[in-house]
Design goal:
mainly alpha; about 50% helix
């Protein structure tokens, strides 16, 4: 095989693998105020039951900071420490009241 053919195969292989793994790389952090159960279970140490508890909790209480997650039954400091870099609380803009 000549050099250019090998180079072409190498570049195509890199492109294919780059595209295949792009969602995992670009996925970013999970917003605990908006994520569905299916996304919450992707967090380290969070199963379906705990994910459901997170959703139930946020129906009554908005998460203002990621640290508020420890208020959910079943999530202690150890679990929080494992996932703190995987989660976020996105700031929502308040709607202005019309006069």
């Amino acid at each position: 095989m000549n050099f250019f053919k090998k180079l072409t195969i190498f570049c195509v292989t890199l492109l294919v693998f780059g595209l295949a793994f792009q969602p995992a790389i670009a996925a970013g952090k999970i917003d605990i105020n908006a994520a569905p159960v299916s996304q919450l279970v992707e967090l380290t140490g969070i199963g379906e039951k705990t994910a459901l508890k997170i959703v139930e909790y946020r129906k009554k209480h908005k998460f203002n900071t990621i640290e508020d997650l420890v208020n959910v039954k079943g999530i202690g400091q150890k679990t929080f420490d494992k996932i703190r870099n995987e989660i976020t609380v996105k700031k929502t803009k308040k709607k202005k009241k019309k006069k």
